[in-house]
Amino acid sequence: MANTLLLFIGLWLNVLMVKPETASQKSLFKMTEKHFGSNAELVQIPNNNGTPLQGELYQIKGGSTKGYGYIGKANGRGHQFTISALFSTNGKIIELKVTEYTSTYGTEVCNTAWLKRFRGKGAESLTLGVDVEAISGATISSTGLVAKLNEIGKKLKKL
Predict the structure, then answer these.
(1) What residues form DSSP beta bridges with 67?
(2) In a 10 Å sphere around its CB, with 0-12 CB exposed, 13-18 middle and 19+ buried, how is residue 84 labelled?
(3) Are 82 and 99 in contact (CB under 8 A)?
(4) Domain range spanning residue 90?
(5) pLDDT higher than 90, residue 6
(6) Span 103-122, pLDDT tens digits
(7) Which of 34, 70, 81, 83: CA 20 to 30 A from 53?
(8) 32 burial class (0-12, 13-18, 19+ CB within 10 angstroms)?
(9) Overall number of domains in the chain
(10) Is the separation of the CB atoms in 35 and 95 below 8 Å?
């Protein structure tokens, strides 16, 4: 009976805990390990509470909630691109990466030096041109990225 219960719990935890499969998930796992240590766990948050959010939202655990992770799409010029983001428990951006960008327009949004400027900013109230400047050649993509970060920040405030 005890072995059956342990097996059931193990299978249940396997369903909740994410194993990296995509480049974006691998990126988020690396960021999580870098900032929270190798013992931190990513547990996907079901998208059924409060405001729906397109993408994958994760709680980063290690005894208690250490932060949040997100993988999803932001709007560019006639296309969408994929981002991976790490947030503190109070909704501040810890790290942000563009993990998939297929368009030939606006690739400047992938610039890591520019993305570093988001660190420490509150995700629910970013204003392009005030908190972070738009990037020349990627105005539409940077606008889409800021809109997505604000959407994520509003969702995090409700958790």
Answers:
(1) 60, 88
(2) buried
(3) yes
(4) 20-158
(5) no
(6) 998 999 999 999 999 999 99
(7) 34
(8) buried
(9) 1
(10) yes
Radius of gyration of the chain (CA): 17
Rounded to whole angstroms, the Cα distance separating 82 from 55 reads 9
Neighbours of 155 (CB within 10 A): 23
Q: Name residue 86's beta-bridge partners.
A: 69, 95
Residue 102 lies in a domain: yes
Question: How confident is the model at residue 49, as a pLDDT?
Answer: 61
Q: Which residues contact 127 (CB under 8 A, 6 or more apart)?
A: 146
Residue 14 within any structural domain of the chain: no
Question: Partners of 74 in the beta sheet?
Answer: 81
Q: Is there a domain that residue 24 lies in?
A: yes
- Please state the separation of Cα 86 from the chain's center in Å: 5
CA distances from 146 to 78, 116, 125 (A): 16, 13, 9
11 domain-assigned:
no
Q: Is 7 exposed, middle or buried (0-12, 13-18, 19+ CB in 10 A)?
A: exposed
Give pLDDT tens digits for 44-64.
998 776 667 899 999 999 888
Distance CA 143, CA 134 (A): 7
Question: What is d(CA 47, CA 104) in angstroms, rounded to the nearest whole number?
Answer: 32
